[in-house]
Specification:
Blueprint: E1 5-11, H1 15-32, E2 38-41, H2 46-52, H3 58-66, E3 69-74, H4 89-99, E4 104-110, H5 123-126, E5 130-136, E6 144-152, E7 155-161, H6 166-181, E8 186-191, H7 197-213, E9 218-223, H8 224-233, E10 240-243, H9 245-256, E11 268-273, E12 279-283, H10 302-314, H11 319-334, H12 353-366
Parallel strand pairs: 1-2, 1-3, 3-12, 5-10, 8-9, 8-10
Antiparallel strand pairs: 4-5, 4-11, 6-7, 11-12
Helix pairs in contact: 1-10, 1-12, 6-7, 8-9, 10-11, 11-12
The structure holds nicotinamide-adenine-dinucleotide, 3-isopropylmalic acid and manganese (II) ion.
């Protein structure tokens, strides 16, 4: 295998802080596992706007299309609140997702045993939890036309359009069924077919794909509002959840709290395979730029480090090395290391972002 290329886009707020810890892990793989990566770094979000006047420079977009995988920290912040909509940091991320056609966003929510008491839900409900939300990422209400703020008589109207084609639903459904086969072999599809035509079509297409090619996988359908309730009531009933862009955004933040903190949740955004057989891919934590704690060394780097582990698994076919990273995280948590977001009532002193990164490196060393 030629040296895999990574484009690192740290972004804004805590993005650069957590990404610095990921870089340590990447370097560790070069030094200790003879798995070097060719790493380049660029700007996205507010950081790109500050330098170039745009949240994503065309050159960065082009580079993202060329590399084997993109790693992104987070974008956004109050400094950019008053910018024109088209220039907001979030537009940079949305452009990457859309132009790379990253239609399947994998958001696993796993509860590490050491954190089962940190969830806002009871230990019994979350201990051992391992679910995968597959969020459609390049269509739906995030991108549908018409959209905008229009004048209507004496007042303005804000418009967004939920729109899904059959092929868009089919391809993300296939991703979910393929994943389910490698896990618990169960898919629950969530929409609101009771009130939305796009939901009716979603349900029909998912069922059709299932019956034609994945009849061995157990499929159920749920209205997304009831799904949100079930996710809090008894999340272990789920294996893979497949849902649209907006429902997936909301349900995955809710799922984060099952694991103890938003600072724990990684994600992989995957597109169609490239010429070399690897999927187009971007890896990023589910959390945002956390302006309330940025610059204080408090951020939890685990979501970003686990996102790199997903890159090892899904882009580079290095599942065992991905597991090595996940086990190192598990060990550090079991040893009682906690960033501030994971503190309960047990009087443990929090560690800083870089101390958490160093502890994970030490656990990686110990795994050799
Ligand atoms: P957020 O995820 O940034 O923060 C929500 C809460 O979780 C905050 O209290 C924050 O301190 C905490 N938190 C998040 N990540 C953490 C971590 N790694 N360690 C410790 N605590 C953590 O969401 P928000 O406050 O709604 O949004 C802030 C900005 O981030 C907005 O501009 C938003 O658009 C953007 N955002 C970006 C992404 C992304 O880049 N993928 C995702 C979500 C939000
Ligand atoms: C996420 C974020 C993004 C989204 C924003 C920052 C564009 O909330 O990745 O979950 O809404 O998709
Ligand atoms: Mn979100």
């Amino acid at each position: 295998m030629s040296t895999p290329s990574l484009l690192i886009l740290p972004g804004d707020g805590i993005g650069p802080e957590v990404m610095a810890e990921v870089v340590k892990v990447i370097d560790w793989f070069g030094a200790k596992r003879d798995l070097p990566f060719e790493v380049s770094e660029d700007l996205v979000g507010g950081a790109a706007y500050d330098k170039h006047g745009t949240p994503l420079h065309d050159d960065t977009m082009a580079r993202a299309q060329e590399v084997d995988a993109v790693l992104l920290g987070a974008v956004g912040g109050p400094k950019y609140d008053d910018l024109d909509f088209s220039l907001k940091p979030e537009r940079g991320l949305l452009r990457l997702r859309k132009e790379m056609d990253l239609f399947a966003n994998l958001r696993p929510a796993q509860c590490f045993d050491a954190l089962a008491d940190f969830s806002s839900l009871k230990r019994d409900v979350v201990a051992g939890l391992d679910i995968m939300i597959v969020r459609e990422l390049t269509s739906g209400i995030y991108f549908g036309e018409p959209r905008g703020i229009f004048k209507e008589g004496n007042e303005r109207v804000g418009v967004n359009t939920q729109r899904y084609t059959e092929s868009e639903i089919e391809r993300v459904a296939r991703s979910a069924f393929e994943l389910a086969r490698k896990r618990g072999n169960k898919v629950c599809s969530m929409e609101k077919a009771n009130v939305m035509e796009s939901g009716i079509l979603w349900r029909e297409v998912v069922q059709k794909v299932h019956d034609a090619d994945y009849a061995d996988v157990e499929l159920s359908h749920m209205y997304a509002d009831a799904g949100a309730m079930q996710l809090c009531r008894w999340p272990k009933q789920f294996d893979v959840i497949v849902t649209d862009n907006l429902f997936g955004d909301i349900l995955s933040d809710a799922a984060a709290m099952l694991t103890g903190s938003l600072g724990m949740l990684p994600s992989a955004s995957l597109g169609a395979p490239m010429e070399n057989g690897r999927p187009k891919a971007l890896y990023e934590p589910v959390h945002g730029s956390a302006p309330d704690i940025a610059g204080q060394g408090k951020a939890n780097p685990i979501a970003c480090i686990l996102s790199f582990a997903m890159a090892l698994r899904y882009s580079f076919d290095l599942g065992e090395e991905a597991t090595r990273v996940e086990k190192a995280v598990e060990k550090v948590l079991a040893d009682g290391k906690r960033t501030a977001d994971l503190l309960g009532e047990d009087g443990i002193e929090p560690v800083s972002t870089s101390e958490m990164g160093d502890a994970i490196l030490a656990a990686l060393d110990a795994s050799l």
